[in-house]
Amino acid sequence: MPVAATPRLPDFAWGVATSAFQIEGATVEDGRGPSVWDTYTGTPGKIRDGHTAATACDHYHRYSEDIALMRDLGIDVYRFSIGWPRVRPGGTGPANGAGLDFYERLVDGLLDAGITPMATLYHWDLPQPLEDAGGWLDRDTPHRLAEYAAICAERLGDRVRHWITLNEPFEHMALGYALGQHAPGHTLLLDALPVAHHQLLGHGLATSALRAAGAPHVMLTNSYTPAVPFTGNENDLTAAEVYDVLHRRLFTDPVLLGRYPDLSALGLESLPFVKDGDLEAIAQPLDGLGVNYYNPTRVAAAPSESPLPFEIVEFDHVKTTDFDWPVIPSGLTQTLVELTEDYGTALPPLWVTENGCSYSVEPAADGSIPDQDRIDYLAAHVKAVDNAIAQGADVRGYLVWSLLDNFEWAEGYHQCFGLVHVDSETQDRTPKASFDWYREHIVQSRRP
């Protein structure tokens, strides 16, 4: 189907995204050490049906096959993450040369295929020894991230131009440290806030390390979700504002403005874990801001006995994905436009570094996988990006989550986000109808 003319820049980049723990497998090969996710998946009852990522998509052994799929797809950029436990198994100490060799092979294969690599340093797989020492609650961990960034840049920096320091620090704090739904499984509620600061400090120190190694393009990727009040009453409006502060501004203001937002609505008048010089370290100039968007969040005032001043409620009469996430493409337009308006000249160019949906569709009799719901979702969200650009947002790229059906954290293999189906028994890859749609969309978008 023809693509309507849009104000996208001529070099607008199309791509896909993955993460190391979710696709690589090979969790005990080449000197790779254990991560918090290895420990978490090995704990009974944590992962649906006891699934593990020991094999995942076997990308470690099949990366050439996956690069061939990406070449066929016609993408410009591939966002992947480097496994910290594979590169520096103990979190400290010497680098693991065999682990770096793997990423060198991957990067070289991508470049040979004409695909730009975009490397994320941290996608939640903290080496277990660092967690044993306190994890992101410990102020030393940001410095370990910076050291790891320098190791990666020294080996790959001559070929990798695009770097992302962190993926979704809000989710990692909220699900991993506040609510216990992800690794490492802590249930600290608002006492998890030092995790936010230490991740952002790690971002700043890693950015400096990457700059010192000559990295020309450094980003941070946050998740963003418009906070929609449940009703128009004052309490719900306030609850939505507080949620926006916690989810969006807490992880954006320090990076772009060099200060934290007012957190008094959360009962916090000061942040004692913020030390002199921290905000200067965090607020390093960036070349882009990554936006991961899946859906808005509907927020209501919490009951009086709740430890948080808000609660999440479902949208009414809205189509949902298999994850029960509401499908509201206009929220992506809203996200991109509000970032543009709220941060003004402090905002670097935007990249949609993740957007996608979970739909499970079994192969038809002829072997095809007609995932029309995913096609509809992607088409609507690409249009949402175009709408944001038309309203002044400077968006440089759009990356689909994900290339492959993969290990979806606590859901195991029950949530399928991939453009490509992966058979869990044979590891055979089968492109879905959405793969063909995205390939054709990319071709059409490049035509005058």
UniProtKB/TrEMBL annotation:
<feature type="active site" description="Proton donor">
    <location>
        <position position="168"/>
    </location>
</feature>
<feature type="binding site">
    <location>
        <position position="22"/>
    </location>
    <ligand>
        <name>substrate</name>
    </ligand>
</feature>
<keyword id="KW-0326">Glycosidase</keyword>
<feature type="binding site">
    <location>
        <position position="123"/>
    </location>
    <ligand>
        <name>substrate</name>
    </ligand>
</feature>
<protein>
    <recommendedName>
        <fullName>Beta-glucosidase</fullName>
        <ecNumber>3.2.1.21</ecNumber>
    </recommendedName>
</protein>
<dbReference type="InterPro" id="IPR001360">
    <property type="entry name" value="Glyco_hydro_1"/>
</dbReference>
<dbReference type="InterPro" id="IPR033132">
    <property type="entry name" value="GH_1_N_CS"/>
</dbReference>
<keyword id="KW-0624">Polysaccharide degradation</keyword>
<feature type="active site" description="Nucleophile">
    <location>
        <position position="354"/>
    </location>
</feature>
<dbReference type="GO" id="GO:0030245">
    <property type="term" value="P:cellulose catabolic process"/>
</dbReference>
<comment type="similarity">
    <text>Belongs to the glycosyl hydrolase 1 family.</text>
</comment>
<feature type="binding site">
    <location>
        <position position="167"/>
    </location>
    <ligand>
        <name>substrate</name>
    </ligand>
</feature>
<dbReference type="InterPro" id="IPR017853">
    <property type="entry name" value="GH"/>
</dbReference>
<dbReference type="InterPro" id="IPR017736">
    <property type="entry name" value="Glyco_hydro_1_beta-glucosidase"/>
</dbReference>
<feature type="binding site">
    <location>
        <position position="401"/>
    </location>
    <ligand>
        <name>substrate</name>
    </ligand>
</feature>
<feature type="binding site">
    <location>
        <position position="294"/>
    </location>
    <ligand>
        <name>substrate</name>
    </ligand>
</feature>
<dbReference type="GO" id="GO:0005829">
    <property type="term" value="C:cytosol"/>
</dbReference>
<feature type="binding site">
    <location>
        <begin position="408"/>
        <end position="409"/>
    </location>
    <ligand>
        <name>substrate</name>
    </ligand>
</feature>
<dbReference type="GO" id="GO:0008422">
    <property type="term" value="F:beta-glucosidase activity"/>
</dbReference>
<keyword id="KW-0378">Hydrolase</keyword>
<keyword id="KW-0136">Cellulose degradation</keyword>
<keyword id="KW-0119">Carbohydrate metabolism</keyword>
<dbReference type="Pfam" id="PF00232">
    <property type="entry name" value="Glyco_hydro_1"/>
</dbReference>
